Amino acid sequence: MKTLYQNTIKLIPFTLLALSLQSCIKQPGAWRNDQIPGGKRDDFHKLNEQLLHDLRTGNSDDISNMESREMLDDKSNLRQIELVGNAVKTADYDIYDEYYIVNKHRSTDTIGNASAGINSYKMIYNGITHEMYMALFLPKDKNLPNQEMITALYAKYDYGWKLTSVNVNTYKINGKTAPELYELGKKKYNKQHFADARLTLELALQCTAPNDYWHYEHDTDAGKLFQDAAEATVKQYRFPVVIDGVAGEPRVFRIGNQKNSHGWFPVIYYTTKVNIADTNAVKSENVQIGKVIDKLLPGITEDKDYIFYSACSKLPLGAATRVEHFDMTDKLR
Fold first, then answer.
1. Per its UniProt entry, which superkingdom is the organism in (predicted)?
2. pTM of the complete model
3. What pLDDT, in 10s, does the model give residues 93-108?
């Protein structure tokens, strides 16, 4: 019972704020950013500030006080709250877009921004209550190469405004959104740089849904083009393939994407006849590989800051097979 009384005391400011948002009911519609009435928007911002603060400090009791009964009952939300909390601890976030919504029916509806050019989007959501509010947050540092979007959805119940969901997902990779990566991948594909196109389109698919409601208007063919690039890569190379121009004929057997603090970049796995224990010899051979790899895989070093290599003693027979290997990073620029 002591915990209950303590939480009740903490709830007073939040309860007053939630109740202050009860008034000013509008006709059905959606209002975005500056269209939201000033006083109501200020109160929503106070809710957001409290949410981000509680997520950052990991105060589970205060977060629970903000949640709707349905959200509290769904224990899977605990993992989502943990993930969002991890995100706000690594970067400062600010509002990117926000929507105040008055639903006509409790059914699926659509809101969005059609004025963002290639990054125009719509969000399809369920009208949980008559009035709702959605806030989309992005890192304040716009120069971060990899950015995650936090989405908070609130609804007005008869017991006040409550959080109904909060989640985090990838918004940008290497400074680009999914549609921007799709356009880049399409250019690479049209140049017949199939392997490089596949890697770029793979990244596009990783950030195509920054939240559970999001749908881009301009990347609808990303999945199909990725499959086309993957099939073209298989036909062109027939892995493992010899790296011409390097003594010992190392063979590339797999390519993929790998992340570091600067972004996502290609990783090339190859077999070598050099003794893996002799790391200086492995590095020396890798220098020669770096000089010719773009001939084997056109575009693979183009517009990249890094490329990763993993030299293996033999070809793995399966995903679970462990082989001796030595990993290297080549800083291209």
1. Bacteria
2. 0.87
3. 999 999 999 998 778 8
